[in-house]
Design goal:
The complex is a heterooctamer, with two copies of chain A, two copies of chain B, two copies of chain C and two copies of chain D.
Chain A lengths: L2 E3 L17 H16 L5 E4 L15 E3 L6 H11 L4 E7 H7 L1 H10 L4 E6 L2 E2 L5 E2 L27 H6 L6 E6 L3 H19 L5 E6 L3 H4 L3 H15 L3 E2 L2
Parallel strand pairs in A: 2-3, 2-4, 4-5, 5-9, 8-9
Antiparallel strand pairs in A: 6-7, 8-10
Chain B lengths: L10 E5 H11 L4 E4 L7 H12 L3 E4 L3 H13 L4 E5 L1 H6 L1 H9 L4 E7 L15 H7 L8 E3 L4 H18 L2 E7 H5 L1 E5 L26 E2 L8 H19 L3 E4 L6 E4 L2 H16 L4 E6 L1 E3 L3 H9 L3 E6 L5 H9 L5 E5 L8 H18 L1
Parallel strand pairs in B: 2-3, 2-4, 4-5, 5-7, 6-7, 11-12, 11-14, 14-15
Antiparallel strand pairs in B: 1-8, 6-13, 10-12
Helix pairs in contact in B: 1-2, 1-7, 3-5, 10-13
Chain D lengths: L17 E9 L4 H14 L3 E7 L8 E9 L11 E6 L2 H7 L3 E10 L13 E5 L1 H8 L5 H13 L4 H11 L3 H24 L1
Helix pairs in contact in D: 1-4, 1-5, 3-4, 3-6, 4-6
The chains are: A alpha/beta, B alpha/beta, C alpha+beta, D alpha/beta.
Bound molecules: thiamine diphosphate (TPP) (2 copies), iron/sulfur cluster (6 copies) and magnesium ion (2 copies).
One iron/sulfur cluster binds next to helix 7 of chain A.
Chain lengths: 242, 364, 75, 198, 364, 198, 242, 75
């Protein structure tokens, strides 16, 4: 018997601290698989976020940098410019990338930095206890939208990927999801494109991944998967955006 | 990498800002990110042209925050990196500086101070001493702080700053004020320093090929680990305290009245020393150059033989707190300051000294 | 019948498992369930459920969706 | 020249020569360039120099000024309280700096932009229509160079050779150089003539 | 405006974070903007529900910087406003705080300190003392800094903070640590304070109808004006220094060994005092409650009758510098600290005291 | 009860009773709620209480613990170095806190998640399969209430009435309340039974 | 004879510190005219930027607030929420609004704050000496793009107005210019709409105004006007965007 | 001819003028020019140029474009 699915080489053996059913675990594994398949473990450099994935460096067996909350793309810019031969990517949550770090995200994209961004959209702030994220959908209840988003002038979910797609310097922007094996596989191919682009010098690429946060959606993992498929995709349609 | 040969024999009239920029490039700085702000705009303007020529990177960042975090990345990648700004912009960098310190990343941060608080004005000031020396950011960290008092010194200290940043793996702040940044004086350049690359950075992010992964971080969640990390930092700070102690004594040997002043303010204080000496008063000047670590021992020794100490700052009184703490009860500590961009004249300082002298002669 | 390949198999690292149930949800053959026992973590981990006449097809769906990389698949 | 022993720019003990000059005007009048050319010329003569600018509203409008010290020995403070020479290129600058000319100092006034020649008994006042002269030469932007010519001519702070050399370093473009040189030369002549007259 | 009647007779078990939030609403705070960060998330979470009910505004800002600048606006409009965060987030607010101070706008800023530097961890710490008391932002400004050491005090000081902010037109910082924020204790609420609106704010922005326009600013470009403005600020600071001097003396009357400690650390120090007293040692505790202004006189007086002073902090030693400065040569100042979220036990502190006692008995 | 005069939580002079409890487990085990219900019950009895939580990785995973002090008089420090009672709901918590039970203190262990019952000669050890019991009652999430029942039963830190009152304040939803109450009651019975057995 | 064009009441008599031909002067006057015409001098509150217009409060006779560089919309949010009866507007340069303040701009718009934003796009940082702005057009030389924008990975001019138009909560977004009397008048009517929207409670409105900076374009005022008409509008097409 | 209105007029505040020239550029009648004299600011301010047979039409273009609000127009 041959192993047809096994533990990726670039993924450390540490068990994650994530909640049961959390999408971060899947996304971490996918990143590791892509690194393995592209053979870049020795030259990949990750910039980890502040968010539930803050210690992603404990889970990947590659060089990693921390970044202050929201500033991962600025940090990645510094690294990539000084190490153009390395493959530099950020891994960021929606609070990190789209709220406090929005300016850094847009300007890094606008400069066309040749980096890859893995953007985990789970519609809440996981790490700090389930507050509203810029990507929280309308009427979604969170720790800071007890009456549902929209009841207290919170505005609408921010479609950062669509905004980034407007910028001439961005080369690849796609939105995928983790709610089923099929979507997980699509996510993986999007990631492959996004990393390949960097290797080939094509430029700024981003994959937005709709990801389960059962804990702060207050849903079981199964219902969380369904909620992405049935609700979240309405606000965030899947597919290649650019 | 194109390097124009620098004529190290010829003096050039240049501003403090340009001196800092040129010195950085000569010291091997290969990453500059900054955001415009008066009175230091000459630095990004200069860098935008020269860094690419020197094979380095110039980025006009979208904000001061982006700039300092780009430095985090560049420094994590092992490069020599610099950002420059002025007071409000430096306030915005405090989180970033704390991160760099926490992650043990060296870099050079230049603050060409202006009048505050808030938007204040664009006149020279020294009211960011507390922020620079006590740590305006959160947590138990320190950065080395160097305060030039001439354009030549701005040039020299910038070069030194890069070495210290690499040696101790810490941000180094050049605390200049608008006067130093803007004024021009003849500068003797010393040329490229190639030992710039002499620091081995085994911890730097280069890709984990052939070794265990490197991780650059300031986050240590497991109980006790952050404390261990802090102890390490404190040990390094002790080492720096031992090894970095820059100051200038001007006519202090026989002085019984000691002026303590730094940066451009010390220039004016020197005029006052000269003037008072002519009047027959035994006045001297102690000028700390490293503000952190503060040259405590040197001041302590001088304070013992002083009848009075006059601290002069372009602030409401910041360094004076350190002087009081160090001097203890050895000598009374007086203070004269001007705020919000006001520049005291030699006469004002001399007037203060005369007051002190009068008080003493009356006592007798 | 001689061409029938050997049964495809999965292996679950039970102590890693957080009992999220996603593998169970997506196994097209309904071959997974939560076990009765508590694992090291104190949860009822996933386990392979032998059902007569139903074979694991090594589709890897369970492994692909597992957030904790508990499942290995062989063919 | 500091011969009054007030300590400004004078080292303890020795009494060397230090010239303290304030040049003031409005944002667009080329104050800084004028002062810089002067300071650079002095440096070329191996003097110690400091050049300290002060801008008004960041770069434009308002009043800007520059303090230049030129000395035979190291200069402590670049800041000038009372100046040997003040050059005031507009009215607000004049109002502001007239009180900062030392007794026996010199005040240059751009009479083009001042209603009446100021009065100050304890210093020499040289008033010329710098702006009009510049306008006549062909560019009101050269007001600064006209003033510089007048200043150097009447004070001989720096030699003409070093001034020319400094001018060359400042203006790489030949035409710009020539225009500015012309303004300086014209002013030098003028001051002499007027001096004789008065 | 819906106001649930608060039962001022019943104690309620609540955390410091909730106590602060509830006190703010009762004190008439009608504008809250904040950005989540551990260990103070309970505050925005609570405010998101309660502020709208109280007729106030809750905004989850896009960042700490946006939050503090929203406060600038709300305060300029005359409202009572609060933001809360923890160390890294507070670092980001430094520019904004300097602006509020410069523009003479009152507001309440809560820092529930965690371990640093950088991302550090989420354990309680006291390593932002310098930042809070010296001014982590640029320029010569101060903010009032109040450090609660119990949940009840967190509640009480928050109410006081709003009054002080209005009275002196200055930001007031509640410097709590993760322990105060997270721990629960019974709290006796005191109910709504309607004198909250008792401060006339003729300077506030309300539209210029029928009067000359009001301008809220910290920018004074014309030479000398910023200095005048700074003098005004300094005068106000002198007034505050005279009027705000909060501290607690615990068994200090006959003490010859004085512990100086604040916030939650002082709670543990109190245990140590109790323990050492049982051993017969004359140990007392001086607990500053206002960290700026520091109760200098009170400490000075105590220091004169002390044989030794032990400063205990959850930091590498920050307040100790103020203590040294104030105590001068009156008594030797010792320091014991834990860093990076480490919490010392009573036993550790008592151990330090014993060491000091031993040193003294050996001297004799 | 602190009768050893080590000063923890004891005021100078008088020797009042103070109970110091550490409750520890993993993120999702309801440590904080359990401790809070206990502390609140004590407050309802007009005791002085402090409740000090400590989370691991912000909210999830890792080990979390909570320190509760209950006393007849004002409590100085909420921090506990050595505890009268430690409740360890999983293995890592046990390993970490076993050394912090005072001599003659009590250690509650959730034997469902511990390979073998721990050894410590100087304190009383009460080991129960809290998680299994909770599972049996119908929800493994009630592990905390089972432990709480066992704790209150065997220590009588707080009265049953105040415990019930506190429970009501904690769970507004009647069904949730009932489920939790059931767990507590069940545990109370159990401990008695087992005690007799042992 | 009747005055058909005279000095607006809401404009103070102070002479501005702006350079000759600077668009700020025109924009200031237009704002004052609109305030006069809508009769809101007594309830208007301006939030002034950090940029050349930093002391706009010296030029308008209305209540004004300063704001830290880039944070004008955050400050305006605080004011408007506490004074919903007042008419609150920000006046911001491109550095202020689109660079350091980009996140605040987008989030204020996304919340749909009922304020008016006057956005002066002059394609450079005026106040600090003519550095590149996010709106600097390709190949434009500035103090920090000595070889022209694009030669050193500076990315492309950022079309903030188009980005904001994507947000559901923005109600009116228009781009106008000041290069001719006709365009000035169009700018005025756009401003009237933007202020009226606020008065009527309609919501977030923004007018982006292409404005001359002769000093740092190193062009005469006339050539500056021409440069907007001929060059700048290519990157920033005029008209109502939303 | 009796219906011919009185000449429209503009008034320029010369000392406010910064000599940007925008009014000159946009006067449809070419009725504006820079003066020979320097104003208080030291610049050659704009002035009305009388041209025989050419009348100011009170279009206000000059006033509308003037960045320094130097021009008043009456009709
Ligand atoms: C400057 C700063 N502000 C706030 C925080 C607190 N914080 C940590 S993670 C986080 C947001 C996490 O949300 P997200 O980025 O969506 O990641 P997730 O946890 O959902 O994966 C916040 C606000 C911080 N560490 N630093
Ligand atoms: C935090 C901070 N960073 C930088 C500055 C310096 N600064 C003042 S104005 C300005 C940019 C001005 O450009 P813009 O907003 O386009 O306005 P303009 O002057 O072009 O009208 C900058 C960077 C500052 N005052 N504060
Ligand atoms: S809180 Fe949400 S995002 Fe964070 S680990 Fe748990 S499920 Fe994942
Ligand atoms: S490999 Fe496919 S069939 Fe086999 S257990 Fe997994 S999901 Fe079920
Ligand atoms: S998906 Fe993984 S973690 Fe979830 S139940 Fe299945 S094996 Fe366990
Ligand atoms: S620099 Fe440009 S924007 Fe600033 S005042 Fe001058 S012309 Fe106007
Ligand atoms: S109103 Fe019209 S015609 Fe008359 S001067 Fe002005 S632009 Fe020329
Ligand atoms: S437009 Fe105004 S400022 Fe410009 S020249 Fe004409 S009158 Fe003078
Ligand atoms: Mg998230
Ligand atoms: Mg601009």
């Amino acid at each position: 018997m041959n192993k047809i699915f096994s533990y990726p080489k670039s993924l450390s053996k540490n068990e994650t601290h994530y909640c049961a059913g959390c999408g971060h675990g899947i996304a971490h594994r996918l990143v590791a698989e892509v690194i393995d398949e592209l053979g870049i473990q020795g030259r990949a450099i990750a910039v980890c976020p502040v968010g539930c994935a803050v210690v992603a460096y404990d889970y990947w067996d590659i060089d990693c940098s921390e970044a202050a909350h929201g500033r991962a793309t600025a940090v990645a810019t510094g690294i990539k410019r000084m190490r153009p031969g390395n493959i530099v990517f950020t891994y960021q949550g929606d609070g990190d990338l789209a709220s406090i770090g929005l300016a850094e995200t847009i300007f890094t994209a606008n400069r066309g930095e040749n980096i890859t961004v893995v953007f985990i959209n789970n519609a809440v702030y996981g790490m700090t206890g389930g507050q509203m994220a810029p990507t929280t959908v309308m009427h979604q209840k969170t720790s800071t939208t007890p009456a549902g988003r929209g009841a207290n002038f919170e505005g609408h979910p921010l479609k950062v990927s669509e905004m980034l797609a407007m910028l001439p310097a961005t080369k690849y922007i796609a939105r995928t999801a983790l709610f089923s094996p099929a979507e997980v596989l699509k996510t993986k191919s999007a990631l492959i494109t996004a990393f390949k682009n960097q290797i080939e010098g094509i430029g700024f690429s981003l994959v937005e991944i709709l990801s389960m946060c059962p804990t702060y959606w207050q849903l079981t993992p199964e219902k969380s998967a369904k909620w992405i498929r049935e609700e979240m995709v309405k606000a965030f349609p899947l597919g290649r955006i650019k | 990498m194109i390097k124009k040969k620098i004529d190290t024999n010829k003096k050039v009239l240049m501003s403090g800002n340009i001196a800092i920029a040129q010195a950085a490039i000569e010291a091997g700085c290969r990453f500059y990110a900054g955001y415009p702000i008066t009175p230091q705009n000459e630095i990004p303007n200069y860098m935008s042209g020269k860094m690419p020529q020197a094979g380095g990177v110039f980025i006009q960042a979208e904000s001061e925050i982006a700039a300092i975090n780009m430095l985090f990345g560049a420094s994590a990648a092992g490069a020599r990196a610099m950002t420059t700004s002025s007071s409000p912009g430096i306030s915005l960098k405090q989180e970033g500086i704390s991160y760099l310190a926490g992650a043990r990343l060296g870099c050079v941060v230049v603050n060409v101070m202006r009048g505050g608080p808030g938007l204040g004005n664009i006149a020279p000031a020294q009211s960011d001493y507390f922020q620079a020396t006590k740590g305006g950011g959160h947590g138990d960290y320190h950065t080395i702080v160097l305060a030039p008092s001439s354009v030549q010194e701005a040039y020299d200290l910038t070069k030194l700053a890069f070495d210290l940043a690499d040696k101790y793996r810490t941000p180094v702040i050049i605390l200049a004020d608008g006067m130093i940044g803007q004024m021009m004086e003849p500068v003797q350049a010393t040329g490229y320093r190639l030992q710039a690359t002499g620091y081995k950075k085994a911890w730097a992010l280069t890709g984990a090929k052939g070794r265990r992964p490197n991780i650059v971080r300031s986050f240590f969640l497991k109980e006790g680990i952050l404390e261990e990390h802090n102890k390490l930092l404190q040990k390094e700070y002790q080492k720096i305290k031992q090894e970095v102690n820059n100051y200038e004594n001007y006519l202090t040997e026989d002085a019984n009245i000691l002026i303590v002043s730094y940066g451009s303010m010390a220039r004016i204080a020197k005029d006052s020393v000269n003037y008072m000496r002519k009047q027959g008063a035994r006045v001297g000047l102690f000028r700390p150059i490293s503000l952190w670590p503060f040259p405590e021992k040197a001041l302590e020794e001088l304070s013992i033989k002083s009848n009075a100490i006059l601290v002069v700052e372009m602030s409401a009184g910041q360094m004076v707190e350190d002087v009081q703490r160090i001097v203890k009860s050895s000598a009374p500590v007086y203070f004269y300051g001007r705020m919000g961009g006001g520049i005291p004249s030699q006469e004002e300082i001399s007037e203060e000294i005369k007051k002190i002298l009068n008080a003493y002669s009356q006592k007798k | 019948m001689s061409q029938k390949k050997s049964s495809p198999k999965i292996r679950i690292d039970k102590d890693r498992c957080k009992a999220c149930g996603l593998c169970i949800m997506y196994c097209p053959k309904g071959l997974l369930q939560l076990s009765q026992d508590l694992n090291k973590r104190g949860v009822h981990s996933a386990e392979f459920k032998k059902i007569k006449g139903v074979e694991c097809v090594a589709c890897s769906f369970c492994a692909i969706i597992c957030p904790d990389v508990c499942i290995e698949v062989s063919k | 020249m500091d011969k009054r022993g007030d300590g400004q720019g004078i080292s303890f003990g020795k009494d060397k020569m230090t010239e303290q000059i304030i040049i003031a005007g409005s944002g667009g009048q080329g104050i800084m360039a004028m002062a810089r050319i002067l300071a650079n010329a002095a440096m070329l003569e191996d003097k110690f120099v400091t050049w300290l600018p002060c801008y008004g509203a960041e770069v434009r409008g308002g009043s800007a000024y520059c303090m230049v010290k030129i000395s035979d020995r190291e200069i402590a403070s670049p800041y000038i309280n009372l100046a040997d020479t003040v050059v005031a290129l507009n009215k607000p600058s004049l109002d502001r700096f007239i009180k900062r000319v030392k007794p026996r100092g010199t005040l240059f006034v751009n009479t083009s932009l001042v209603d009446k020649k100021p009065k100050k008994s304890d210093c020499k006042i040289i008033g010329e229509d710098f702006s009009d002269i510049a306008s006549d030469i062909g560019n009101v932007q050269c007001t600064n160079m006209v003033a510089l010519g007048a200043l150097v001519k009447s004070s001989s702070i720096v030699g003409r050779d070093s001034l020319e050399k400094s001018l060359r370093e400042a203006f790489k473009d030949e035409n710009v150089f020539l225009l500015n040189e012309k303004a300086i030369k014209y002013a030098m002549k003028l001051v002499k003539v007027r001096k004789r007259k008065s």
